C-alpha cells in the first residue's frame, strides 16, 4: 500500500554514515560506546535512581558489555542511537541518545542519564543541547520528544532548560516498580530557533551530515 506523503528522511539516512563524535565543549563530549565502557555502565545501572526511572538493572559484566554492544546494530537498523557522555579523560559520566527513531516521520524520543557523581553540574543539559543540535542539523530530524514521570523533577528541569516545552500529560502511560506513572511530554521542533552551539570535530563535519 503506497504512502501518500514523501518520507521526511529516506531509509539509509543514518546507516550510510558513521556515528559521529560530538564535542560539547572542552572537557565534555559525546561519543559512541565501547566495550571497555562496560564497568561505568554497570555502575550506572546499579544506581537506584537510574533503576527507578529507566526500569532496568544489569547483574553482571557480561550484561553491561551486551548493553554497550547493542548500539552499533541499532544505529545500522536506524532505530536508535546512544552516545556516552565523556569527560576530558574520555571516561563515561552519563548517556544520552535517541530511541524510537522514525525516519518516515523525522522523529525520535530523547533519553539521558548521569552517573551519581556527575550530577548537579548541568552536564545533562549541555549533553541534551548537543544531541538536539546534531539531531536537527546533521541527522535532519524534524521533531524530538522527551517523556518523563511527573514525579521526576530533575528530568523535567533538564528538559525545560534544553528548550523542550511541555505539551501535556499522558495519564498512567508508564509502569515503574511502584505502579503506573503519569508522564510529562516535552517536545522541540527543528524550526523553533537556535540551539546553543555544540561543536563537531573537524573530521566529522561532513561525516555527520545527512545527504
Order of helices and strands: EEHHHEEEHEHEE
- The total number of structural domains is 1
Numbering strands along the chain, what is their spatial order in the largest sheet?
Answer: 1-2-3-4-5-6-8-7
N/C terminus separation:
27 Å
The fold-level CATH name is: Aminopeptidase
Give the mean pLDDT: 91
Strand content: 25-35%
Q: Tell how many strands the DSSP assignment holds.
A: 8
> From the structure provided, what is the oligomeric state, counting identical versus distinct chains?
single chain
CATH class: Alpha Beta
Number of helices: 5
Q: Per CATH, which architecture?
A: 3-Layer(aba) Sandwich
Structural class computed from helices and strand pairing: alpha+beta
Helix content: 25-40%
CATH superfamily: Gcn5-related N-acetyltransferase (GNAT)
Main pleated sheet: 8 strands, mixed
Q: Residue ranges: pLDDT <50 for 5 or more in a row?
A: 197-211
Task: Please give the radius of gyration in angstroms.
Answer: 17 Å
Amino acid at each position: 500500500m503506497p504512502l501518500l506523503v514523501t518520507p521526511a528522511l529516506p531509509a539509509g539516512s543514518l546507516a550510510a554514515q558513521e556515528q559521529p563524535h560530538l564535542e560539547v565543549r572542552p572537557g565534555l563530549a559525546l561519543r559512541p560506546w565501547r566495550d571497555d565502557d562496560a564497568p561505568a555502565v554497570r555502575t550506572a545501572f546499579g544506581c537506584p535512581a537510574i533503576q527507578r526511572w529507566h526500569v532496568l538493572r544489569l547483574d553482571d559484566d557480561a550484561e553491561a558489555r551486551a548493553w554497550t554492544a547493542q548500539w552499533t546494530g541499532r544505529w545500522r537498523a536506524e532505530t536508535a542511537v546512544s552516545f556516552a557522555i565523556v569527560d576530558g579523560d574520555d571516561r563515561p559520566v552519563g548517556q544520552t541518545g535517541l530511541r524510537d527513531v522514525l525516519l518516515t516521520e523525522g522523529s525520535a524520543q530523547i533519553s539521558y542519564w548521569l552517573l551519581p557523581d556527575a550530577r548537579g553540574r548541568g552536564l545533562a543539559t549541555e549533553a541534551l543541547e548537543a544531541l538536539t543540535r546534531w539531531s536537527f542539523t546533521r541527522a535532519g530530524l524534524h521533531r524530538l520528544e522527551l517523556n518523563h514521570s511527573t514525579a521526576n523533577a530533575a528530568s523535567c528541569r533538564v528538559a525545560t532548560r534544553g528548550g523542550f516545552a511541555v505539551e501535556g500529560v499522558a495519564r498512567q502511560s508508564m509502569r515503574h516498580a511502584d505502579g503506573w506513572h503519569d508522564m510529562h511530554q516535552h517536545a522541540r521542533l527543528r524550526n523553533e530557533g537556535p540551539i546553543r552551539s555544540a561543536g563537531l570535530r573537524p573530521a566529522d563535519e561532513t561525516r555527520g551530515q545527512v545527504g
